[in-house]
Amino acid sequence: MLTVEELSFYYDPDRMILKDISFSLETKDILCLLGPNGTGKTTLLRCLLALNKMKSGRLEIDGCDLTKANIKKRAEMMAYVPQATVMAFSYEAREIVMMGRVTHLASGGSASREDRKQVDEAMEKLGIRHMSRALFNEMSGGERQMILIARALVQQAKILVMDEPTANLDYSNQVKMLQVIKDLAEQGYSILMTSHFPDHAFLACNRAVLMRDGYIMSQGLPEDIVNTENLTKLYGTPVCVTEAKLDYQDRTIKVCVPVMN
Hints:
The chain is α/β, with parallel strands linked by helices. The protein is 31% helix and 30% strand. The protein is built from 9 helices and 12 strands. The strands form 3 sheets. A 6-stranded mixed sheet has the order 6-7-8-3-9-10, sandwiched between helices. Helix 6 links the parallel strand 7 and strand 8. The protein is globular, with a radius of gyration of 19 Å.
């Protein structure tokens, strides 16, 4: 669905931020973008969302050139889920979700019965309809993240771009969030997510991209590229990828372990 070819971006021509970035995202893919701080992951997302104007390259969804698409067309194709944070005003959860319907409203129009139906269905799908009247700023980080996902779903775009969806969540809520992401992919969404946890590539994703210093170091199946050698080079610190046997499930999974002196 999404094709990115040789995307480059810079603020200063003498200092490239992104260098010839190329990858694709198919239906039901969950692609995990891994890399250290300052390597350009968020800048790449901003280029995809047209918040930054890429300097060169090709960006298409189903053959549509996104560099020539207006904001409304992009919103119909791609929805953004930022890291959960507080709002300047204390909106109710349902109001936040309804904001995702803006692209479907006529200019100056108010929410229709269909808009309200889409909001109810999205919140029901995520199991958060009971929080409709709760104040967003008074919610936990995990609850706010679910509200932001619901807001993205009501856009009815099939590609979800998630910037560190598990950031600032406790262990339990990280697991719940990864399960939600897997469930959405099964329902037909394509998901591009960034993460600072390489284990997430094994737990939830079928594709991984390793990015450092503005270029793609490696990409492919997590089991092929998320390994000891690549992670040690990616993060500049010793990392060991090993296996853990889950006796109660009679299966083995890969895990990443930082190596400390």
